[in-house]
């Protein structure tokens, strides 16, 4: 037995926890009662597995306003989706714009292609609040680059990007818009049509409330990334060539049906609860956190001042206390679990001035309580005051 | 022409997703005898499934499956000689 405080999980930006209980029961049901390989055999357990995958794909299409669910291919995570979009679409000589907020799951594939002389990459500046500068974007789009990559919400500051305006500008320039919705899918409204998105990469294990190992890529008809992996799809079996049609084109090998069963339960929870209700609750929790941290002596809050402009993420730095130490003390003294450091997005930290030590990131979720937030505020204020008093 | 009473029709698709969508469309359209079955080897060597329905409803089924035209491989009905293309 230890007398460590009850864990207060404020790391939903890394992965959501807890999940709705229905997620675990759906996965347990799959393993105990279904177990078949989706789309591979004709028997009823394979059909049942396929039906779960089908139902999840349809539910995600509804959530994203995608007219045809077949344009969603499941992937192990948003990283797989971003890699497929980038390596699958870009060709020698292509020019790419990427916001300064991009995660390494976008930047590393882009930098790899750039280093090998295949493409050129231009980084787009963001303002002090961590929002893409639309005037700068408009200017950069004049040269009609092939692709524009942007996060929907920054994993470092939570800053929500003006997707609809970005989408309209990209559309006018004839530039494909790739949106990394890792932080926003399930937390913020997304409408691929109205937002002018051409490719949407999402993960299942964050705000969509599914298990790790799920995610996917949606692409507009006519935007046809080559698969990174080829193999069995359960379709066109007589041919040794990869099928061209979606989703099979991008879904080789046995799919993670047990994970997708969990993801379906997560998305069903979101549909039943209502995205607006989830957003309203998470925004209130984030505002409560901001209210407690903004203006506190020795604490700098990075990103937008209002929760309305953020996904449920608040990154802070402490005067005289490195993030790794602060995170450790928050857990030791208050049971508050955060993420510390660079959050895999080095350029974003340069943009907001927190390079190289990064930030302490608090990220509430739907199941976070106001009391959890108050404990986090108390802990942060205690650390800041102690540091200030100790000098 | 529609099939004789007691016989079936099938619709085959490229993707499993479309097969399941077809099942949903046909059930919602109250087509009789809708069920997923293995693809008959006479029609395709695929290892997947296809959607089966009462052959008497084949014309209405074909109408209901129009939204999936880009994925549809064929509609077949049972006859003495095996599966023959519908229409």
Mean pLDDT of chain B: 90
Largest sheet of chain B: 5 strands, antiparallel
- Note poorly predicted spans of chain B: none
Instruction: Give the number of helices of chain B.
Output: 2
Average pLDDT metric of chain A: 95
Assign the CATH topology of the largest domain in chain A. Answer: Aspartate Aminotransferase, domain 2
**Proportion of residues in β-strands of chain B:** 25-35%
**Helix- and strand-based class of chain A?**
alpha/beta
Number of helices of chain A: 11
Radius of gyration of chain A: 21 Å
CATH architectural designation of the largest domain in chain A: 3-Layer(aba) Sandwich
Query: What's the CATH C level of chain B?
Result: Alpha Beta
Overall outline of chain B: globular
Measured distance between first and last alpha carbons of chain A? 36 Å
Label the CATH architecture of chain B.
2-Layer Sandwich
Strand content of chain A: 5-15%
Short note summarizing the structure:
The complex is a heterodimer of chains A (391) and B (87). Chain A is of the alpha/beta class.
Protein architecture, described:
The complex is a heterodimer of chains A (391) and B (87). With 391 residues, chain A is an alpha/beta fold. Chain A has helices at 21-34, 44-64, 78-89, 104-115, 134-141, 163-173, 257-273, 275-293, 323-334, 346-352, 370-389, and strands spanning 8-9, 72-75, 95-99, 120-124, 147-151, 176-180, 199-203, 215-219, 299-302, 314-318, 336-337, 339-341, 359-362. Chain A folds into two domains: 21-273, Aspartate Aminotransferase, domain 2, CATH 3.40.640; 275-389, Aspartate Aminotransferase, domain 1. In chain A, strand 3, helix 4 and strand 4 (120-124) form a beta-alpha-beta unit. The longest helix of chain A has 21 residues, at 44-64. Chain A is globular. In chain A, 55% of the residues are buried. Chain B has one domain (8-81): 2-Layer Sandwich (Alpha-Beta Plaits). In chain B, strands 2-3-1-4-5 form a five-stranded antiparallel beta sheet, with helices on one face. In chain B, strand 4 (72-79) and strand 5 (82-85) form a beta hairpin. Chains A and B meet through helix 2 of A and helix 1 and strand 2 of B.
